[in-house]
Amino acid sequence: MNNQLISIIIPTYNREHLIANAINSVLDQNYDNWELLIVDDASTDNTPEVVKGYLDPRIKFIQSDKNGGNAVARNIGVDTAKGDFIAFLDSDDEYHPDYLEKALKTLNSAGKDTAFLWSGTKTVAVDGSQSDFIWIPKTEKVPNQFLYELHVGIGRGFLIQKECFDDLRFDENLRTAVDTDFLIRLRQKYNYTVLEDIVVTINSQEGSVRTNYSEKKKSYNIIIAKHKHVIDKDKFLRFKWYYKLFWLSLYDGDQRLAHKAFRKIIFSSIKPSFLFLLFSVFKRDKAISLHRKLS
């Protein structure tokens, strides 16, 4: 096991005040056969200067000329990686010292048919409160399991065999829901296991919740199109995915796409009709506020 190289990819953008903690958490690993690829997505702060203070033969820094988004940065890292396995760490998060050691041991022990895992995580909220989380899926529908249920992102301690990326990439057309899209496709091709230990700390940041409804709507419309043949045939999936596209479209003021999604679920529940009425009676900001309170 000790000769297996792990490529750790940290995509970053304007994290000068945070990225040192992420890098130090890699340097502190018990397992030492790793390379760290830090991909800077055209930061405008001093992130490059901070990173350059850490460079050595195992730590590489790749700078992009223009901001392409998280998917682009991750793909650059994947294309550069030389490891047998790839791990992803967000630039504001931290590995615990035993993450790599435990993740590699767990994945190797799971058998040849198991290609990836995620771990338990500790989340530190902005107010300093902490909570632990280990997601164990309840659904067992294969290979479309993650269409039904998905409660983790790539930053939740994922370790993935490099060969998975021979035919998979992060979709560079997406600016949001990048993890959702990738993990659905990853699960359709490969099996997983779970490292049921808390070995990654997720640090919440002010303003980290995305409110760009236009990009969210675009992303979910693309994801639905990719899996339409599965979603349209399943009553549960049809409501789940089109209802989210429906309210995102209403939030964004896109009546055309909202009507298109609405027609897919009009007879599934009273919720879509009620929401349409809400947005017909109230101005959009007020309707959004009411919907959030009722959800």
TrEMBL record:
One family name in Pfam for this protein: Glycos_transf_2
InterPro entries given in the database record: Glyco_trans_2-like (IPR001173), Glycosyltransf_2 (IPR050834), Nucleotide-diphossugar_trans (IPR029044)
Domain Glycosyltransferase 2-like residues, every copy: 7-168
PANTHER family named among the record's database cross-references: GLYCOSYLTRANSFERASE, GLYCOSYLTRANSFERASE 2-LIKE DOMAIN-CONTAINING PROTEIN
Highest rank taxon of the organism: Bacteria
Organism: Salinimicrobium gaetbulicola
Name the UniProt record assigns to this protein: Glycosyltransferase family 2 protein
